[in-house]
Amino acid sequence: MGPNDTQGARPPLRGDAGITIRDVAKALNISHTTVSRALADSPKISDETKSRVRAVVAQMGYLPSASARMMRGRRSSLVGLIIPDIQNDFYATVAKIVADSLASHSMQLLLSVTDDNPDRELRELRAILETRPAGIVIVPTALPRPETCALLQNVETVQLVRVHADLAGSAVVIDDRAGIKAATRHLLDSGHTRLAFVGGDETLSTGRERLGGFQDALAERGLKAANISLGSPRPEFARYAVTSMMSARNRPTGIILGSAELTLGALQALRALKLDWPRDVSVVGYHDPAWFELAEGGITTVRLPVEDIATTATTVLLSRLDERQTSGASEVSPGTVQFEPSLVLRGSTRRL
Amino acid sequence: MGPNDTQGARPPLRGDAGITIRDVAKALNISHTTVSRALADSPKISDETKSRVRAVVAQMGYLPSASARMMRGRRSSLVGLIIPDIQNDFYATVAKIVADSLASHSMQLLLSVTDDNPDRELRELRAILETRPAGIVIVPTALPRPETCALLQNVETVQLVRVHADLAGSAVVIDDRAGIKAATRHLLDSGHTRLAFVGGDETLSTGRERLGGFQDALAERGLKAANISLGSPRPEFARYAVTSMMSARNRPTGIILGSAELTLGALQALRALKLDWPRDVSVVGYHDPAWFELAEGGITTVRLPVEDIATTATTVLLSRLDERQTSGASEVSPGTVQFEPSLVLRGSTRRL
DNA sequence: TTGTAGGCGTTATCAA
DNA sequence: TTGATAACGCCTACAA
């Protein structure tokens, strides 16, 4: 008799998804140990027992409890993915690839969206860590809370796209500086001299690097920027920035955008101002969602190796987990992997 | 000296994220029970003890183990979201809203992508169920495996967008028939008589309903379809279908698409054929991603109440969970909630 | 107000 | 080849 043999009390939430290894054992009149071993395909169990166990398991719809398994100290099959925004095509692609890679390793994706809010980032991270995940892939906010950094020290972490100095762990990034530099050079080579840049905040590593690429390219020709607008990496900000710079006199002849979301906002602003690209202004986007090809003659853009970085991030994470498992502590230096973007020429830029 | 001061034996995978309630208790020279109660804010614990516990907890970075908590019979904070494709703007929006709603209830999103593959759907579902989630939100594949249906009977489930008869549980859907009917009528009212429809397979509930709407509208005017192409709901299929129907003689003057991905593919095909919309053919899309506004004069489309269905899905799920918790078994009839789409007129359709 | 003693479902160790 | 038993971290009925 268990603790639930009191009369009035209702059964404690059972009747749910509560088939255990012991239920299977009872049905077969064997010990639960044997069932466990049979399911683990232990060589110590006869083939006949194994197949009888498997039959009953299938018939009863038994599924092992991940929680109980974890309690015994086995590694979790969960990997946390923390990103700013899942509607952003770039991160959606990342999520897809990470999910695919994990699935092929029988692991699962715990998704958290931060909206670039450091407090939410911390809350989501705490919640994820309560599940004791195998690892974490994170696109950190601009200024993570100190506790966020502290918590991440105790779990295998890979930083994606953005890198924050206070965070340990490997990083997989894009050569943003080179990307924007190529975009800027392209417009300079086409005869433009009044160029504007709309990018993310300088508190973001990506914001700094992309701005740096723009400035590097201008410096090569001894030119000054016509306009630089930095802010939140959302369409709203680019709408505002582009609207105001295009309404001023001596407006730029070319605009370089620092993200896909900013590109969307910039095009929306031009559309609202009844300005056409490349007639009224040349535009170079960042990242290459499928629709760039369709927007009025196609958007010239910096194509990012999204597949590469996402695949690499999971590969790095999983291999570090393996190392950690075999060689005790992970002594391998975290290190950073960087991928090169490439410029795709379409109809949104023209020679002056 | 921690628990890892044994000499020869290596610590059993500890050194990881292994701070337990007992470690906190030891640091304070009190029993782990007191710590547990302090964290649960039990009235039986003195305020002084509580604050001392909280201080040490914060300082040591203790986080409760979700597994251990689950083992004690408490409900999981995980909700599984099973969708065909996270790169699809429609499902990305769904994921964002579900993630937000869950976060505000201190719950987490376990994301699975099926790629519309029933076997993968089953594998992912099994993996999710091993975590004993609180519930599941699913956009089922066209033909789920019988085991998938069987497994879903033991967990609170909400079907989203697509409805499959063999699946129990509530459903939150869009009035697809009305949506496509409105799109078709719009073209008919503009003088079109040769209309084509490109949609998803009829094995999908959405495929059947959307096709039905097209046929209903034509039947009202006593017209026949110029072309109907049904297939996989991917851009590739629409590229193929539109390319072939526009290359035939007596081609349609208007095309109605049965999904956003199909719309993308259709536009790509027209672009490749050097055909312009609405000059060479009128186009009505489905769903309204931000870029529809920017694609060559804007795409006339059927706007779907994505926010509504996603919010409702989580609301329904969470409220059913509450009912289940209070009133023993959930006896409330599952039921279906349906939302109405609306037509957005832009530049991709013209009067004939 | 605090402490002791189980037990949740698994797996690993030891014994038969 | 199989079985009994203990332990993982947490929560709670019961005892102090």
TrEMBL record, chains A, B:
What domain of life is recorded for the organism?
Bacteria
Any idea which GO molecular function terms this record carries? DNA-binding transcription factor activity; transcription cis-regulatory region binding
Coiled-coil spans in chain: none
Among SUPFAM superfamilies, the record links this protein to:
lambda repressor-like DNA-binding domains, Periplasmic binding protein-like I
Q: What Pfam families has UniProt attached to this entry?
A: LacI (PF00356), Peripla_BP_3 (PF13377)
Q: Which SMART domains match?
A: HTH_LACI
Print the keywords alphabetically: DNA-binding, Repressor, Transcription, Transcription regulation
Q: Which residues cross the membrane?
A: none
Domain (HTH lacI-type): residue spans on this chain = 19-73
Q: Give the matching PANTHER family.
A: HTH-TYPE TRANSCRIPTIONAL REPRESSOR PURR-RELATED, LACI-RELATED TRANSCRIPTIONAL REPRESSOR
Its recorded name reads LacI family DNA-binding transcriptional regulator
